[in-house]
């Protein structure tokens, strides 16, 4: 009986998603943006992640409609781009 090789990157991605979703209540896989008025604390992690996504959105030029999301992680940011009518 041969064993299927497991890709450690896939395991890490899945583990990150499970931990984030069930312990931090977030589906993003980035570290976030922590402005000075946001205490660096695990309970603020989802807020920091939203801050980062909002920051990226605020810097997309108005005439851009197509975006390549390289290293898209969970796909949550791509989903948000699509919801805002971008072609991803």
TrEMBL record:
This is Methyltransferase type 11 domain-containing protein.
């Amino acid at each position: 009986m041969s064993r299927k090789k497991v890709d450690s990157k896939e395991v890490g991605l899945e583990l990150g998603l499970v931990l984030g979703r069930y312990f931090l209540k977030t589906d993003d896989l980035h570290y976030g943006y922590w402005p000075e008025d946001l205490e660096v604390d695990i309970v603020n992690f989802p807020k920091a992640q939203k801050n980062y996504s909002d920051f990226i959105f605020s810097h997309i030029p108005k005439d851009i409609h197509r975006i390549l999301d390289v290293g898209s992680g969970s796909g949550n940011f791509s989903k948000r781009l699509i919801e805002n009518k971008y072609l991803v």
